[in-house]
Structure formats: C-alpha cells, structure tokens
Input
Amino acid sequence: MSWTWFHKLASPPHAYRILGRMAPWFGWSSLALILLATWWGLVKAPADYQQGDGFRILYVHAPSAWMSMFTYVVMAVAAGVGLIWRIKLAHAAAAACAPIGASFTFLALATGSIWGKPMWGTWWVWDARLTSELLLLFLYLGYMALRASFDDPQRADRASAVLALVGVINVPIIHYSVEWWTTLHQPASVTKFDKPSIQIAMLIPLFIMMAGFQLYFGWVISRRLRGEILRRERNAGWLKEAA
Amino acid sequence: MIRTPTTEAAKLIFKRDLTLAWRRWDEVTQPLIFYVVVTTMFPLATTPDLSALRVISGGVVWVAALLASLLALEALFRADVEDGTMEQWVLSGQPLGWLLLAKVAAHWVLTGLPLVIMSPIVGTGLGLPVDAWGVLMLSLLLGTGTLSVLGGIGAALTVGVRRGSVLLSLLVLPLAMPLLIFGARAVGMQMDGDSPAGPLQLLAAIFFMALSLGPIAMSAAIRISVEN
Output
C-alpha cells in the first residue's frame, strides 16, 4: 500500500479541498446528535434522586470538560508533528485548535460554576476538577499569548509548538497535584456529589452528547483550518486558480 | 580542530556568569529585596496576629519566592542573544543543552539559592515555627531548581519578544502550580505534625524530570529564537 494519500494531505490545496468537503458532514451529523442528546437528556432521562433536575447540566459540562483535554492533546500532537517533520499544515492545525480548546475549557468552567450554585451553595468551590480546568485555561491563554507576540508566523509556529509540548507533559502532573491537594483540604460533605452513581439511562444521552461534541469539534476545526490555510497561503498561485 | 570538552565549556560559562553577576551586584539583590517586600505585604493586608499568619506562612513564602525568581528570569538569555554570544554557542558544535544548563545553574546559584537562604528569616516574620525551617528550605531548594529550568524554557521562548516579562509569567506560572502545591503543603504538613516526606519526594521527582527533559526543550527554544 502506498503512502501518497498521506503525503497529499500535508499539501495545503489538497487539504483545503478535502476539509471543505468534510465540513458539512461533520456539521450536520453533530447537529443531529446534539439535538437528539439534548431531547434525551432534558426530557427522557430520569431526574437524579439527590440533585433533582439540576444534574442535567452535566450533559454540557462533562463533554466540554472532556473536549477541553482532548483538544489540548490534539494541539500538542499537531505541534509535535509540525516541529519534527516541519509540516506547515500541522502548525496551522495547532493554531486552529487553541481557541476552540480555550472555549471548551471556558464552557466547562462556566457550567461547573452554574451547577455549583444550587449544589454547593456558592458559585465557586476549589474542587479538583474545576481547579484543573482553570489551570488548563491558563495554559491555553499562555499558548495563544505566545503565538500572538511574534511577527514572523514561522517563529510563532515553532516557539508555540515547544510550549505546547512542554504543556502536554505538564497537564497530567498539574491534574494529579490538584487532585492530591483537594483530597487533603476538602470536607467529605462536598465529595458526596463528586462521583454520583450514575444510571445507565442517564449515561446513554451523555455518550450521544460526547459523540456530538466530538463531531462539532471536527466541524469547527475543518472550518478554522480552512481559514488558517487561506490566511497563510494568501499569496499562493493555487488560490487564484481556485477562486 | 581542537574541541574543548563539554564539561570544560560548561564550567567556563558557569564561571563567567558568576563573575558577571559579581560585577553587577544590584541585579542579584533586587529580586531578594522584592521577595522581602512581597512577604511584608501579607501581614499588612490581613492581620498582624502571628498565630493567624502562621497558617498561611508556608504558602506566602512560596508564592513570594516564585514571583521573585520569575522577576530575575526575564533577563536570563537576553544579553547573550543580543550581543551574538548565543549564536556562537549554537554554532560551536557543543551540545547546546549542556551549555544552557550551565547557564541556568549559575542563574540558580545567584537567584534561587539566596531565596532559599533568606526563607527562614522571612518565614519567621510570618510566624513560621523553627522546626519547619528545614522542610521550608528543602522544599524551596527543589522548587527553585525546577523553576529555574522551567523559567529557562520560558525565557528561551520569549527572548526575542516585545513585553517579554509579562508573557514569561503567563507561560511559566501555570506550569509551576504543582511545585507550589507540593512545596507549600510540605511546610504545612510539617507544622501540623505530619510527615512531609510524600510531597518532598514528589518535588524531587519533578525536579529530576525537569533536569533531564528541560535542556532538550531549552535548546530547541533557543535555536528557534536565534535562527532568524
């Protein structure tokens, strides 16, 4: 079997075409799954015996928290590929990932805080997961700030790639240190809600929602990457032919 | 062509940086003064009651030490990149990671070590008991060492950037959070009468990881900064 299809993917005109063709598939399927999961989660799933209907925000919170980590890993892998094999398209993909990941992180923080108000009685609790999401947001913001501070796009690509790789090694350390820190401090009454014994009827819409979020990520990354390619290749000949 | 052994080159860099610092002494003392000033702010902002301050003393000393060593990190590579010394190191054929590690080590001796030595004095002002001195110093010893390497990566990335100092803090502080957690908790556990061995060992593990992987990241970052 030949690898030409793979090498072709790294060429901007080819990737631009393929991404354009894939984007609507991602978009429509994610819309369908998210609508289905929303209906299932809000209407069909039973209310929690402890938290009542309040737990339903989980259907937004958990997938966005998962996607915030997933996006960071995708970004770091893309950055690593770009740094090692000097593939410009991989750097473009890493650049396209950062704002999406930061948005997912922010969404996870906001929904976690809204959930905390009725459950804990305050908008913010130094809970292990919320705290590590907050630190993840700082990592994304640092990455974007570093990228924005270079005038030369190639230097911005490579410098931020090093940062993304250092960050991805640190993410598990940060996560476990924060977890260790909260288990030392937190009164047990709060952790009662931490790992709710979740029923299968509640889990099915969660999985559908996660798949929906994943496809949504596919849709946004295709569109953002196309934009990134247009911006980077604005002087290239193939664009004039395409237009 | 006669090539200087790497250890010899690293030693020369280490010595050169110490000599340079000796001749511009104020750059070494400024972060230390900052360290004392920041820790003075906490009693003024909260309460002069030592028994209340004692609870947060370990954390305050740690936060102040982090900020003070960040302050010093900004200029770590700047002079060498600006006058072309760094380009010579990149071209010298020596393993760049080792040379940078020597530079970071010299920097740690000049900024990290004084912070460690000062910490019992500063801590006492916040009501830190004498039997927690050893743990505080040991945790800061491991913590500032790791921070010098992490900060070295950050400084190498931001060396050619406008407004590098704010950016450097933004990059390095989130990465340094685990150090803060383990360091401040080790001091707290010692004061509560628990054994602080666990967090200290974790700090040591992070230190050795930074020591082994850090030079690779630093030299990659310097190459990017110097290339253009």
In short: Chain A has nine helices and no strands. The two ends of chain A are 34 Å apart (CA to CA).
